[in-house]
């Protein structure tokens, strides 16, 4: 793994689709972007930031999500996500994360990822 500078940032824009809605995930009548979808967007922006620093067979895996869902996000409107590296401890990286729709912060918090060997990760099958 290459050295990851504190403060490194990544932004991604996602267009909220029907498959991201709480109603699609079983919360009938709640036609807003679901909490799991927003968390997924924040994981993706963090993961994609780390791609620039991985070497060989390294991959990153999510290890912690600590967020507050602050406001509704709506279908068809872009959601801008941001991940900023706050801490690097060996192979553990902590990000501050945020999702905004327009001028509203809809989710914010922290996300942890760890850099691991893909081969070792996939070799760790249940029952071994």
Q: Quote the CATH topology.
A: Thiol Ester Dehydrase, Chain A
Name of the top-level CATH class: Alpha Beta
Q: What is the number of helical segments per DSSP (H or I, 4+ residues)?
A: 2
Number of beta-strand segments: 5
The description of the largest β-sheet is: 5 strands, antiparallel
Strand order of the largest sheet: 1-3-4-5-2
In percent, how helical is the residue content?
10-25%
Termini, distance in Å? 27 Å
Question: Which blocks of ≥5 consecutive residues have pLDDT under 50?
Answer: none
- What shape does the CA trace take? globular
What is the H level of CATH, i.e. the homologous superfamily?
Hotdog Thioesterase
Q: What integer value in Å does the Rg equal?
A: 16 Å
Average pLDDT figure: 93
How do the helices and strands follow one another from N- to C-terminus? EHEEEEH
Q: What is the count of distinct domains?
A: 1
Give me the CATH architecture, please: Roll
Strand coverage percent: 35-45%
């Amino acid at each position: 793994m290459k050295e990851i500078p504190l403060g490194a940032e990544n932004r991604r824009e996602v267009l909220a689709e029907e498959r991201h809605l709480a109603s699609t995930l079983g919360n009938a009548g709640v036609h807003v972007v679901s909490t799991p979808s927003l968390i997924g967007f924040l994981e993706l922006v963090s993961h994609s930031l780390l791609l620039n620093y991985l070497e060989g067979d390294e991959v990153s895996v999510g290890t912690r999500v600590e967020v507050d869902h602050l406001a509704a996000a709506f279908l068809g409107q872009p959601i801008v996500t941001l991940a900023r590296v706050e801490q690097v401890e060996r192979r553990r990286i902590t990000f501050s994360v945020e999702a905004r729709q327009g001028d509203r912060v809809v989710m914010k918090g922290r996300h942890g990822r760890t850099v691991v060997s893909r081969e070792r990760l996939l070799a760790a099958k249940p029952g071994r």
